Amino acid sequence: MLEKKIAVVILNWNGQELLKQFLPSIIKYSQEATIYVVDNASTDDSVLCIKLHFPTIKIIQNKYNYGFAKGYNEALKFVDEEIYALVNSDIEVTENWLEPIISLFEIEAQTAIIQPKILDFKNKEYFEYAGAAGGFIDKYAYPFCRGRIFETLEKDNGQYNDTIEIFWASGACFFIRKEVFLELKGFDADFFAHQEEIDLCWRAFNKGYVTKYHSKSTVYHIGGATLQEGNPKKTFLNFRNSLWMMLKNLPKSILIQTLLIRMLLDGVAAFRFLFQGKISHFFAVGKAHLYLYMSFFNFLKKRDSHQSKKYYKIKSIVYRYFINNGKVFDHL
How far apart, in whole angstroms, are the C-alpha atoms of residue 311 and residue 78? Predict the structure, then answer.
């Protein structure tokens, strides 16, 4: 194993308290790596905190708050290591979390992206929402995970203690070869935040690269530390970015039909928000669709020459979950 071939890169925005809480575990258990914190123009004392309390960490300062996608794109220009480990600032890592990942990269040349097991920091016996034991999508690009389907989280009973090919890896703890990241031109900066990692994995998949989940590496994630689940901005970003992702990556032969069905399903979700009294979320879905109309032709230009037809795990996770009681991944 080559020493310091991996860079642990943590994106931060006004997360001074999270850095104090979680950097110690990363420093303690990441001897194989060079550790970077990318500061997205924080207005708190994050940078000063790192300099005073964690002097071994390298700091990259972005000029503006570029969000997750462009924030990483800009910062990684200054990172030379062969493998990027992109880690949220609210992640606690465990002993020996890097070695299994590095070993898998070394023996599998076509594996370009890897995700560890992601458990809930607040309830460590359960999988965490953002990634769990590896991600998939259905035909209409609704994401789900082994260990988490919509709001249903499974307890970790060892049922996913394996190493398998998945469709997408969580941006909460996302390992990727530098050469592949550069070939794909990084995250789509227009996304700002949310689902940019699924888009990147989809583009990698279309080029024949493999994304894997490796259970022998475990991390714990708080989730929602930057943007809470009930925030309508999060709803807007998820719905908008999902539509953009479909426009970029769906096979041409099913593009319009699949996109229209997804938009109808979004309409159902919007009225569900309305009936729940979540008015701002109702309008967030409408705003997401408006952005699709406004940017339709710009995103058509982002399409690659090849899109694989075998991108989805099942036809409709919405039907399986809400109609057919498919709330556990193994039951799918």
Answer: 33
* Distance in angstroms (rounded) separating the CA atoms of residues 39 and 11: 6
> Which pTM value belongs to this model?
0.95
Give the Cα separation of 8 and 22 in Å (integer): 13
CA–CA gap between residue 283 and residue 286 (Å, rounded): 5
**pLDDT tens-digit series, residues 132-184:** 999 999 999 999 999 999 999 999 999 999 999 999 999 999 999 999 999 99
Two tokens, residue 33: 């790596």
Return the number of other C-beta atoms located less than 10 Å from residue 304's C-beta.
Answer: 12
Tokens of 21: 């809480």
Residue 67: C-alpha distances to residues 42, 166, 187, 190, 267 (Å): 11, 26, 11, 10, 27
The answer to whether residues 135 and 174 touch, using CB atoms and an 8 Å cutoff, is no
Indicate the angle between helix axes 255-275 and 232-249, nearest 10 degrees: 170
Report yes or no: 84 and 9 within 8 Å, Cβ to Cβ.
yes
Place of tokens 């690659």: 304
Q: In whole angstroms, give the CA distance from residue 15 to residue 18.
A: 5
Residue 129's contacts (CB-CB under 8 Å, 6 or more residues apart) are: 120, 148, 153, 223
Note the Cα 159 to chain centre separation in Å.
22
